[in-house]
């Protein structure tokens, strides 16, 4: 089987049109969409891992520059958190889903049948590989023009996440090698249409905070905030 057949050409052309990208080298774009599971079945094909490596470096730089310019009032620590949140694999997978990259990927039969097109690690890597391909095709400014609107769309969600006490508590416990916090409902009260949950959060098996709320999520948020105070982190 050749590296680039007519079906691949159509798939790459469709993606480039949907994303508003102009690729003179469709083979490069197609390589960005090729998972190693596909290579295992068609040995002449090159996978996207080298492009993923390049795209990771390019994304890190552009995300850092975007965060620096977008949030001139924030200190270095917060800038680092925002950049890290933007380029972590889970977030890149969300970008891929928004762009519908999954349907354009070349996967091995086993990977495709087991749900690979929806898997976070595969989609995040594909986004990095796509960025690497855009960089090689058209340069840094084109990559910047491509990713900046994507970053802007995610801005509010990212800001909410980095200031979320649950995320902050988990980040601290992991940095202390204490594992993930554990949230446990200890009581409920009120009528069915207005139930109030009381939740405790434990760190390494020790209760560190309590919270209440009209949903489990709100009570966990309150408990995490209480734990942060009790631990002297706020």
Can you give a write-up of this model?
- By secondary structure, the chain is mainly α.
- The protein folds into two domains: 6-163, Ribonuclease III domain (Ribonuclease iii, N-terminal Endonuclease Domain, Chain A), CATH 1.10.1520.10; 166-230, Double Stranded RNA Binding Domain.
- 62% of the residues lie in helices and 10% in strands.
- It contains eleven helices and three strands, in the order ααααααααααβββα.
- It has helices spanning 6-19, 26-32, 36-41, 49-70, 76-87, 89-99, 109-113, 120-138, 140-162, 165-175, 216-230, and strands at residues 182-189, 196-203, 206-213.
- Strands 1-2-3 form a three-stranded antiparallel β-sheet.
Summary, kept brief:
This protein has eleven helices and three strands, in the order ααααααααααβββα.
Q: Please write the string of helix (H) and strand (E) elements.
A: HHHHHHHHHHEEEH
What name goes with the CATH superfamily of the largest domain? Ribonuclease III domain
Question: Total domains, how many?
Answer: 2
Give the spatial strand order of the biggest sheet: 1-2-3
Question: What portion of residues belong to β-strands?
Answer: 5-15%
Distance between the termini: 60 Å
Shape: elongated
Mean pLDDT across every amino acid position? 90
